[in-house]
Design a protein that fits this description.
- This protein is α/β, with parallel strands linked by helices.
- It is built from 18 helices and eleven strands.
- The strands form three sheets. A five-stranded parallel sheet has the order 2-1-7-8-9. A four-stranded parallel sheet has the order 4-3-5-6, sandwiched between helices.
- The relative contact order is 0.17.
Length: 365
């Protein structure tokens, strides 16, 4: 109970808010990279508690949202190959691509299964030796080690019917791209705690070093977030640009060496296509040569399956939202045409999407 009560401490919350109010003497624009931060900020009403000088912008920290339409089209095309079972996490089912969605492909007869971990896909491959099970590898550095573990286990068991369509993304290159573009003026970065638990707090040193911006790693409880914001506001007011770790109980400077070793053994950095950011070098993960037999992409060519040129949903501004260039409620489709029941773009579909957070928690201001 003591651990839980640490995050329900009104006195500490008020003390953090006093710190923020005392140091926010001029406008400060902060970006939280992670979609989980975005939803936590809305769910706990933190925006309403912050002084008007503090503006929070949401970044591209939703792995489902940043999956490009072209990659979605490839996944849907794979589902239509005879003898293929698609294993996917639930958020991907309703995301619209150029050729519909995986949910629509399933309704049309494709074998698409929702799994809760990469080990579920491994089990499907064991139970269906006469079918090819394609796992859609979607996620940031938090998910990639578990997928790598499944591939290593499949190799050890000789499961030749498991394949991976790796759509994994690496978060620092995307942050580099946003900061390098200068499209959005920022005064600090709230770095994601879950990702940092894998890659380490030091992975964000470039924000302070290369862009002269304060960066604070923090967790997802309300007090964690307020502590991170307070630190960024104080650094901004003092004219400092340093990397701080406000989440030491979950994040070490060097991260998780075992997870990094496993990820590095199976994957190598590769170019990846991001919705809203385009193709970024070294921002994706491709299977290394020794595990290339598990790559699902060659199945498309082997079965003569091509995909048409990908196109974004008409009027969808998810790309702008993911760069922090547009608030979701400024999109002309928001709430009028695009809703969680009838989503036009992925930012309204995913449980980590900014549009879903604005819609669910009333982000109309």
């Amino acid at each position: 109970m003591k651990y839980v009560d640490e995050f329900r401490d009104p006195a500490r919350a008020e003390a953090l808010l006093r710190r923020i109010r005392a140091h926010a003497t001029r406008p400060v624009r902060l970006m939280e990279f992670c979609g989980t931060h975005t939803h936590a900020i809305f769910r706990h009403g933190l925006r309403q508690l912050l002084p008007p000088q503090v503006t929070m912008l949401s970044g591209p920290g939703c792995p489902v949202c940043v999956t490009s339409a072209a990659d979605l089209d490839r996944a849907i095309a794979l589902s239509r190959i005879p003898g293929v079972t698609i294993a996917t996490f639930g958020d991907m089912m309703r995301v619209p691509g150029s050729q519909g969605s995986l949910q629509e492909a399933k309704a049309a007869g494709a074998d698409v299964r929702v799994v809760y971990s990469s080990l579920d896909a491994l089990d499907l491959a064991r139970k269906q030796p006469d079918r090819t099970v394609v796992l859609l590898g979607v996620g940031f550095e938090t998910t990639a080690p578990t997928v790598a573990a499944a591939i290593v286990q499949a190799a050890a068991e000789g499961l030749g019917n498991l394949r991976l369509l790796s759509l994994h993304k690496l978060t620092p290159p995307a942050t580099h791209a946003i900061l390098r573009s200068g499209e959005v003026a920022l005064d600090g970065i709230l770095a994601p705690g879950h990702v940092s638990a894998i890659i380490g707090a030091q992975a964000w040193q470039f924000v302070a070093r290369d862009y002269a911006l304060p960066c604070t790693v923090t967790g997802f409880e309300p007090l964690d977030i307020l502590a991170g914001i307070a630190d960024l506001v104080e650094q901004h007011e003092a004219g400092r640009a340093e990397l701080h770790n406000a989440y030491p109980r979950g994040v070490r400077p060097q991260g998780n060496p075992a997870a990094l070793e496993l990820m590095g053994r199976v994957f190598a950095p590769a170019p990846a296509s991001w919705r809203g950011l385009g193709t970024l070098p070294g921002s994706g993960l491709a299977l290394r040569e020794e595990y290339r037999a598990f790559d699902a992409a060659p199945l498309l060519a082997a079965h003569g399956v091509g995909t048409a040129e990908a196109r974004e949903p008409a009027g969808c501004r998810c790309g702008d939202v993911l760069r922090g260039a547009l608030a979701p409620n400024r999109c002309p489709l928001f709430r009028r045409v695009c809703t969680p029941e009838r989503p036009v773009g992925p930012c309204m579909v995913s449980s980590e999407g900014s549009c879903a957070a604005y819609y669910r928690y009333g982000g109309d201001a």
